[in-house]
Design goal:
Blueprint (H helix, E strand, L loop, with lengths): L1 E2 L8 H12 L5 H8 L3 H9 L6 H11 L10 E2 L2 E13 L12 E6 L12 E7 L12 E6 L9 E7 L2 E10 L2 E5 L8 E4 L7 E10 L3
Parallel strand pairs: 3-5
Antiparallel strand pairs: 1-2, 3-4, 5-6, 6-11, 7-8, 7-11, 8-9, 9-10
Helix pairs in contact: 2-3
Length: about 210
């Protein structure tokens, strides 16, 4: 989509995207409603009706989020990807969590938030819990997962995987016939699995984006 330098013809969903790009955080409809002084339902209805943003609303957004949305030369094209978000799926940065359900919804994200984005790849968003990957990943962060495609483990990348029927988020490295599992929090020890036990680890995907707030 093309956003003009003064916001002319900008729709409400495009404003959300622009705020996300400027802040680096995910902005939901409730936050935008608070910013504009309207109800969440009004925001939802205006998005469905492709309602345009007023100049006063742009100023409110700049003041509320403490950002500068436009300057004299601003003009850009931003691609949006609609990613499956599983609000009931938790992956542990600690001792492991079990998937509670597969209820999902679609979230629009700027592709600039996804490292190495490709339309040929599949992505999902899940929740992080625990503190073993702090400060990189904090409890409550939303994680963008690139689904595993059968490729080899890339050393020291962060993966989501299942082990003993629980889901974890850790850095993985491979050394001959063993897999090294590391945490970013130094209070957690490094673990190594090898032999037949290594086959019990199932890669689900690689973390390619972190949303600090939602």
């Amino acid at each position: 989509m093309i956003i003009s330098k003064n916001g002319e013809n900008m729709k409400l969903d495009e404003l959300i995207t622009l705020i996300q790009t400027k802040t680096g955080e995910f902005i939901n409809q409730s936050q935008l409603a608070n910013c504009l002084g309207i109800t969440r339902q009004t925001v939802s209805n205006r998005i469905k009706n492709e309602s345009q943003v007023t100049v006063s609303e742009l100023k409110k957004a700049e003041e509320y989020f403490k950002i500068n949305l436009f300057n004299d030369t601003f003009e850009r094209e931003e691609k949006i990807a609609y990613i499956d978000y599983y609000p009931d799926v938790f992956a542990s940065c600690g001792n492991g969590n079990i998937v509670f359900s597969e209820r999902k919804t679609k979230l629009p994200l700027p592709t600039s938030l996804i490292s190495g984005f490709s339309e040929s790849k599949t992505y999902s968003i899940i929740n992080a819990t625990g503190n073993s990957m702090c400060p990189t990943i904090e409890n409550g962060n939303k994680l963008i997962v690139e689904h595993w495609d059968g490729s080899q483990i890339q050393d020291n990348k962060i993966y989501v995987f299942s082990f003993n029927n629980e889901i974890y988020i850790k850095r993985l490295s491979k050394n001959l016939d063993e897999i090294i599992i590391k945490s970013d929090n130094p209070e957690y020890r490094t673990r190594t699995i090898s032999g037949n036990t290594a086959f019990e680890l199932t890669l689900l995907g690689r973390i390619v984006g972190i949303i600090k707030s939602l």
